[in-house]
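FIELD: query
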Amino acid sequence: MDRYVAVKMVGLTKYYGSFLAVDHIDLEIFDREIFGFLGPNGAGKTTTLLMLTTVLRPSEGNAYVYGYDIRGHPDKVRRFIGMAFQDPKLYWIHTPYEILIWHAKVCGYRGGKAKEVVADVLKELDMYDARNKRAFELSGGMRKRVEIAKIFIQKPRLAIFDEPTTQIDVSGKHKIWDMIKALRDEGSTIILATNELYEADILSDRVAIIYRGRIAALGTPRELKDTIPGGDVLEIEFNPPLPHEVVGDIESIRQVSKVMLSDSRIEIYLNEVERILPRIVTLLLERGVGIRSVHMREPSLDDVFMHYTGARLSEEG
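FIELD: result
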């Protein structure tokens, strides 16, 4: 069954003078998925999102949010969207509680309900004890929590997070990731713009690798990793000797790209390791090879980024 398209971009393009920041993006994002934009700073992620939210007007092309185009119906588009910006938008003399109560009221909460929902989100984000501090007294990570708290209060149909866990500690990251998943499960479509490899990998249903304003690759994290020739590595330690014909038998497997052999270890570079592993183990056992250990290593999204762009995201970021 076809999935409902929440966001559709058609030739979406943005120039700043002669500089091409976003280069004719064609993309569909499905309803109720977590969609990751993975790329370094300056890749075009934020510019794309600002066009999608009607903050910036495209130089060329268009985009549609739940059927409404961003050029012709910006007011209707904005009704669907909530965005947590990369740089928190806070009034420095206000407290988190004041900022979020005001935001809750803008989102339609009234009286005791506004206080209740704000208190709940503050507690979930481990911010309740800091609720009455002035914004200028907060750390960068705490200010970031205030910014993303707005989304968890609003619960928009399309929730956009731009680098949501920058400056946030590890335990805080995991809390926010769980909250993002819960928001998706409650019915929101999520767009996650990030340069954090692990964040994109564990959260995203699909990932678009964006580099220099263009989509370099698109798919689930697993699909993208499987596109790297010989990207998986299978390391097997065995009791010598190894029958000579075994190497040839392994090399004849279509998914295997390279085999390296030492005295008591064989390294096999291949694709689809989870599917091919039982076949290789069975082959070794049938040849009487004593297996001491088996270790699998899969490529990372940084390997995928390198494969499609020629650069390391960890270095570009």
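FIELD: remark
The mean pLDDT is 93.
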